[in-house]
Specification:
Elements lengths: L1 E7 L5 E8 L7 H14 L9 E2 L5 H4 L5 H8 L4 E2 L3 H15 L1 H17 L3 H20 L23 H13 L1 H13 L5 H14 L2 H24 L6 H21 L1 H14 L10 E2 L2 H6 L4 E2 H24 L2 H10 L5 H4 L4 H7 L1
Parallel strand pairs: 3-4
Antiparallel strand pairs: 1-2, 5-6
Helix pairs in contact: 4-10, 4-14, 5-9, 6-8, 7-10, 8-9, 10-11, 10-12, 10-14, 11-14
């Protein structure tokens, strides 16, 4: 366990110093709390002087009753916990994706596609060549604009587990390279020189790539994550103003809520248009949706539209909003807003006596 101290020195400057590295037998909150208390005590530092703390967003840290945050609050009620805003957003997005089964499966398939297409330099070259050929054809029929910096050849990058913006970039690039990716997979399927396992993997991911289910969630996550990508990048700026950050969070929540209320029709239209353009299957939204797992639990017949609108679209967006509200709670938001009154930026531009009294 790494311990870092953040403090204000006698001259009023904010300092942050690596303090100590401690071996712990386990990572339950009680053990971590005891070890931190021992380290502070050994250096004659009182827990009662603790004014703030921060750690990752795991349940053993931020749990309401038994988390490390709660244990410290029992001894020092002024030791406010404020999580890293950018990391909060990434955790919220990751948690939201994992809670919706269809979206969770989508990202597993997405990573599988990337690994299959980019597993060798030969396939990488084929992907590049397919992009160039497609681009030349689009330029010839005047479907794309030409100019300096436009129509750059790219590749599919493997996403990072804790860098959610990398998932958004992958989704965006796959939409641009959909035909090229499909062509490479089709070549692998008919290539007799590849191994049986490679042939099977390519056949499986090709089937997933051209399915309506995959295309629908691909567009859904592009729209949904597009709203949060700007916020994610903004929160990583070291010079980000606290009040501005809170406005960005509120604005993003509003955009996602509006997408939830009014975005279904435009999303469905975009997905169907994409399917027509790329010759993939389009489902009839009014027929009965058959799913073996669901039918065992619920014998009521539902339509395809109901499944994609309620079980996927609404569920994914609602989970996103729930996670954002959980990580950016009203208490934390109010604390940060009130704390902005103490900021010396621009000659204490945000100084407000009433806010300081409320903070105290």
């Amino acid at each position: 366990m790494a311990i870092v101290l953040r403090f204000v020195d006698r001259y009023g400057y904010l300092r942050e110093r690596f303090f100590e590295l401690v071996h712990v037998k386990d990572t339950i909150s009680k053990t971590l709390k005891e070890e931190i208390s021992v380290v502070l005590s050994n250096h004659e530092l009182s827990i009662q002087n603790l004014r703030g703390k921060g750690y990752d967003g795991a349940s053993n840290m931020r749990g309401e009753w038994n988390g490390l945050k709660a244990l410290f609050m029992e001894e020092c009620r002024y030791a406010y916990y404020v999580h890293c805003l950018a990391h909060q957003l990434q955790l919220a997005l990751i948690a939201a994706a994992r809670e919706v089964a269809e979206v969770h499966d989508f990202f597993k398939d997405l990573i599988f596609i990337v690994n299959t297409v980019s597993s060798s330099s030969k396939r990488y070259d084929e992907l590049q060549a397919s992009q160039i050929a497609e681009l030349e054809n689009l330029i010839e029929i005047e479907e794309v604009e030409t100019g300096k910096g436009l129509n750059q050849i790219s590749t599919l990058q493997r996403p990072g587990d804790t860098r959610w913006s990398s998932h958004y970039k992958l989704i965006y690039s796959l939409l641009k390279m959909y035909n090229a990716t499909r062509l490479v997979l089709e070549k692998i399927v008919i290539d007799r020189r590849v191994s049986y396992s490679q042939h099977g993997d390519a056949k499986y991911v090709l089937k997933k790539l051209v399915s309506f289910d995959f295309v629908f969630i691909l567009h859904l996550m592009e729209d949904l994550m597009g709203y949060t990508d700007g916020l994610c990048r903004a929160l990583q700026h070291k010079s980000q103003d606290i009040l501005n950050a809170m406005h960005l969070v509120a604005g993003t929540k509003s955009l996602i809520q509006n997408f939830r209320d009014n975005g279904w029709e435009s999303l469905l239209q975009k997905v169907q248009s994409f399917c027509l353009k790329h010759d993939t299957q389009i489902l009839d939204m009014q027929v009965a949706y058959s799913n073996i797992i669901r039918s065992r639990r619920n014998k009521d017949n539902i339509t395809v539209e109901h499944h994609y609108r309620v079980d996927v679209f609404n569920a994914a967006v609602d989970q996103q909003l729930e996670e954002l509200n959980s990580h950016f709670s009203e208490r934390t938001t109010e604390l940060l807003t009130l704390s902005a009154s103490l900021s010396p930026i621009d000659e204490y531009k945000h100084f407000n006596v009433e806010n300081i009294c409320l903070l105290a």
